[in-house]
Design brief:
This protein has 644 residues and is α+β, with helices and mostly antiparallel strands. It has 27 helices and 17 strands. Among the domains are: 2-221, 4-Layer Sandwich (Glutamine Phosphoribosylpyrophosphate, subunit 1, domain 1); 234-318 and 329-370 and 487-553, Rossmann fold, CATH 3.40.50. Strand 6 and strand 7 (136-141) form a beta hairpin. It is globular.
């Protein structure tokens, strides 16, 4: 596990003058790899990395190379099938100088070219310099998007890195604001690829590679989520899933450093812990976050699983500490995400890092097997629409908007408000309409005339619609799970987990996202995965023997944080400062009238605007740091330095 950065000059000019900036860029991602630094600068290419030593800690150094040094690699992630790839390459005459998975990539590329990507089982963001002939650079991201990779490309250079801030360190000035990134952040709480908040800095899409030389740019997908449905029986699906998951968990337990698991008390993490127990001759270390607010607290369920498998269990209670909880926001601000659970994910990662260097998590189970409320909501909506457009578009939304939200995490009132609001939105969004936080009505009132004009051509619903068109043959459940796996999972969940866990120098592995499991799940009939209003039916049936009964029959809660209460309490001064009338008027993106209305309604508890308000706060912080050269932080202890 590492952070990588690099620069490639397309004109052939030497990049030695960038050495200081390259070293600075690597230092900025010290948290991703505190154990080792590595650099290789020669002619037109400069590569750097910060390493977290997991496999073969005494070897496996980077940048790695082939026998004659014509191929060089920097790599962030893990390739779980590297032992079999090594044996295959040795049989073809390749000679290795070290154990581990990084050197394998250099030899595999030398042997098979770009096609080697199809043979990898793992998570990765990588760069491979091919010094043969005229020299070219290849950057690639894993199939599902578990590990991040960003880049900036023009006629002169390709600059790339594991985090946006590494690219900024190699540029003269921070690029201007990208309207599409802003609209995406406020609409969904995250930014879909290839966009970022910076104009010209892009995210490489999952399952894609970019190959660049002096004259050519090749940007292609080497893998895509499967579209077809296989005619499997329920029992066949269960048997296949059990076999694949057992192998995926076993492969991800290979480590030369201490290893554990996140345990929330939900279906997915409980299955992971149960399977890990089979493959370990010692107690698994498990880590859980609890909350003082009982409606947010899942810790008692996690304890049930910990007791069943006799794990070495650690429970952390989340309390608001600005100095501590600012850190994940600070580190993720270059590509911000509004998901409230960044705090709890960071906290459980920090606690785990005191005991282990690697954890397994249950991420992906909800998207692949239908775990979200939206799947049930979409089915209910078909009956709800029978009430007619007057009731569903006007009367009921207006009535529910007048009802005060419940202080609980969910509750009947809160669920009803979300359902009625979502059901009134465009059918083009399908089930993602319940995951939208800025709709067209709010957008019209929120954006200033100038910014509305700049963003006039930006329609985030088209990104969802494009994904839906790939699954036109599927039923509602299959379409929903496909979109969540292609969109919400990599751009929200995996982005959040990578950045918050790496903020504590912790590697997180995700067995559900072994590409073989993903391919199996998405080609399994939707009726097996969601049966009527029963979510995760296939998953529960396949692993009923692994789960305690209270876990098997409980509903989905989600790994959230009581942000709506924090913004009315300890985070209120931050909100009032970052969203002050003076600041909003100065920046010129949003109308002061709408922002003031959102704040006033939220503080008076007449409505819950926490999602929009928090995303606005993050964007204003980003503006201060990367456009105004400020330091936007409530804590003077931040180690992050603005890049100008």
């Amino acid at each position: 596990m590492c952070g990588i950065v690099g620069i490639y000059d397309r004109k052939g000019a030497p990049v030695e003058d960038f050495r200081g900036k390259l070293e600075r860029a690597v230092e900025m991602i010290h948290h991703r790899g505190p154990d080792e630094r590595g650099f290789w600068i020669k002619g037109r290419i400069g590569l750097g990395m910060a390493r977290l030593s997991i496999i073969a800690p005494q070897g496996n150094h980077q940048p790695a190379k082939n026998e004659d040094g014509t191929v060089r690699v920097v790599f962030n992630g893990q390739v779980y099938n590297h032992p079999s790839l090594t044996r295959s390459l040795e049989a073809r005459g390749h000679q290795f100088t070290a154990e581990g998975d990084t050197e394998v990539l250099a030899h595999a590329y030398e042997e098979w070219g770009v096609g080697f990507l199809e043979q990898l089982n793992g998570m990765y963001g990588m760069a491979i310099y091919d010094g043969r002939e005229d020299g070219s650079i290849l950057i690639a991201r894993d199939r599902i998007g578990i590990k991040p990779l960003y880049y900036y490309l023009d006629d002169d250079r390709l600059i790339f890195g594991s985090e946006v801030k590494t690219i900024l360190a190699l540029m003269s000035n921070a690029p201007a604001v990208n309207p599409e990134g802003v609209v995406s952040l406020l609409t969904f709480e995250y930014i879909y690829p290839p966009h970022t908040l910076f104009r010209g800095i892009k995210k490489l899409e999952p399952g894609h590679y970019l190959k660049v030389d002096a004259d050519h740019v090749e940007h292609r997908a080497y893998w895509d989520l499967p579209h077809e449905r296989r005619p499997l029986s329920l029992e066949q699906s269960c048997a296949e899933l059990r076999e694949l998951m057992d192998d995926a968990v076993s492969a991800r337990m290979i480590s030369d450093v201490p290893l554990g698991a996140f345990l929330s008390g939900g279906i997915d993490s409980s299955i992971i812990v149960g399977l890990m127990a089979r493959h370990s001759d010692r107690p698994i270390k498990t880590f859980c976050v609890g909350f003082e607010d009982a409606t947010y607290n899942e810790a008692p369920y996690a304890k049930l699983v910990a007791d069943r498998y006799e794990t070495e269990h650690y429970e952390i209670t989340l309390r608001l500490d600005l100095d501590e909880l600012w850190k994940p926001v600070d580190l993720i601000l270059d590509d911000p995400i509004g998901d409230f659970s960044v705090f709890s994910t960071y906290l459980v990662s920090r606690a785990a890092r005191d005991h282990v260097t690697v954890v397994l998590s249950g991420d992906g189970g909800d998207e692949l097997f239908g775990g979200y409320d939206t799947y049930v909501a979409e089915r209910l909506a078909r009956y709800y629409q029978l009430l007619g457009p007057t009731m569903t578009q006007r009367v009921l939304p207006k009535l529910l908007s007048a009802v005060r939200p419940s202080p609980a995490k969910k509750g009947l009132i809160n669920r009803a408000k979300v359902f009625v609001t979502g059901a009134a939105r465009s059918r083009e969004l399908r089930h993602t309409r319940w995951m939208v936080f800025m709709d067209e009505r709010l957008r019209k009132g929120l954006f200033t005339e100038a910014f509305a004009e700049a963003a006039a051509d930006v329609d985030p619903t088209q990104h969802v619609a494009k994904l839906m068109r790939r699954m036109e043959h599927g039923d509602l459940m299959e379409q929903g799970m496909y979109v969540d796996t292609a969109f919400y999972l990599p751009d929200n969940i995996l982005h959040k987990v990578d950045r918050t866990s790496m903020a504590t120098s912790l590697e997180t592995r995700v067995p559900f996202l072994d590409h073989r499991v993903v391919e199996s799940a998405l080609t399994t009939p939707g009726r097996h995965r969601v049966q009527g209003f029963k979510r995760k039916a296939l998953l529960k049936r396949a692993f009923a023997h692994v789960l305690p009964k209270p876990i098997l029959h409980r509903g989905k809660e989600g790994f959230s944080t009581p942000m709506k209460h924090w913004l009315r309490g300890p985070l209120k001064p931050l909100m009032m400062d970052m969203l002050s009338e003076e600041r909003i008027r100065r920046d010129g993106f949003f109308t002061t009238e709408t922002v003031e209305r959102l704040k006033e309604q939220h503080l008076a508890e007449r409505n819950d605007h926490a999602h929009v308000l928090w995303s606005l706060i993050l964007f204003c912080m980003w503006l201060d740091r990367y456009q105004h050269g400020g330091q936007s932080t409530p804590s003077p202890k931040s180690e992050e330095v603005a890049v100008r």
